[in-house]
Write a structure and sequence with these properties.
The protein is an alpha/beta fold and 283 residues long. 35% of the residues lie in helices and 20% in strands.
């Protein structure tokens, strides 16, 4: 596998590339969810194509009191795992200036960031959109694969991709879960043993929402009633039901809707770990 460290190296590599190119942008510390995205990129690129990933903990999507320094990292292990699922090239800049030196341009999608994580983390999606736009310009993939655990991020990136005429295709893949139901996340590694068990309250609550919906309940307030009690082992950031297309809150579900949660749990480092999960409810 080729490992590229600089923007100039990526441009030189890309100039000589032929055939389909699949791309998975990441912040590293891979779990099976990441690897499932890479396998899908491999499948879509085909035997004659190329699969590239990026590993970059993007500082511009972290707020001043968030876990940038504590975000788990394991580049050597990541590269070994990526090679094992057919990745050909990894862009791993060690200096943020490779992407941001002298940069005065920001990319922001209006409207879709007003609720859920966008309201809780102001500026977060501006950082996400900016770095993905930069990576798209460097890598120029035929298809890029993202996970649906970050549903709002995927919706925003799809809008950005369409509005900026970036070419290629954005593909979302279902949430990968641990055997006990917890959504896979690099941040899970920072949970204490006790908070890892407490975090199972999230998939438990999401299952209850699905049961209520399957039983015919369509009122948002009734679907998420008791959320703060059910999620009490953690500190609830938000529990919301929004339209699956425009991410605006809904009172009654008449078309596909998204139930999304974000909850904080104690971290090994003494702070907190913020976990998210979601379920699409399709009447």
């Amino acid at each position: 596998m080729i490992v590229l460290r600089t923007r100039s190296a990526v441009l030189a590599w890309r100039a000589g590339l032929r055939g389909p190119l699949g791309f998975v942008p990441t912040m590293g510390f891979f779990h099976d969810g990441h690897l499932s995205l890479m396998r899908e990129a491999r499948r879509r690129a085909g035997p004659d194509g190329t699969v590239a990933i990026s590993i970059f903990v993007n500082p511009t999507q972290f707020g001043p009191n968030e876990d940038l320094d504590a975000y788990p990292r394991d580049e050597a292990g990541d590269l070994e795992k990526a090679a094992g699922v057919g990745v050909d090239v990894a862009f791993c800049p060690t200096d943020p200036r490779e992407l941001y030196a002298g940069s005065r341009t920001w990319v922001e999608v209006e409207g879709l960031d007003q609720h859920l994580c966008g309201r809780a983390r102001p500026g977060h999606f501006r950082g996400v959109c900016t770095v993905v736009a930069k990576l798209w310009g460097l890598i120029r993939p035929d298809v890029a694969i993202f996970g649906e655990k970050d549903y709002q991020q995927l919706a925003i990136l799809r809008r950005m991709h369409a509005d900026l005429c970036l070419g290629g295709e954005v593909v979302g893949m279902p949430i990968a879960r641990e055997t006990d139901g917890l959504a896979m996340s690099s941040r899970n590694a920072n949970l204490t043993e006790h908070s890892r068990q407490d975090a199972l309250a999230i998939p438990g609550f999401m299952d209850e929402v699905r049961r209520r919906f399957a039983a015919g309940e369509r009122r948002s307030a009734a679907l998420i009633a008791g959320a703060r009690v059910a999620l009490r082992p953690g500190r609830v950031d938000y529990v919301e039901l929004v339209d699956a297309a425009d991410l605006e809150p809904v009172e009654t579900i008449e078309r596909p809707a998204l139930c999304a949660v974000a909850v904080f749990f104690p971290s090994r480092g003494g702070g907190e770990v913020r976990l998210i999960d979601n379920a699409v409810l399709n009447p």
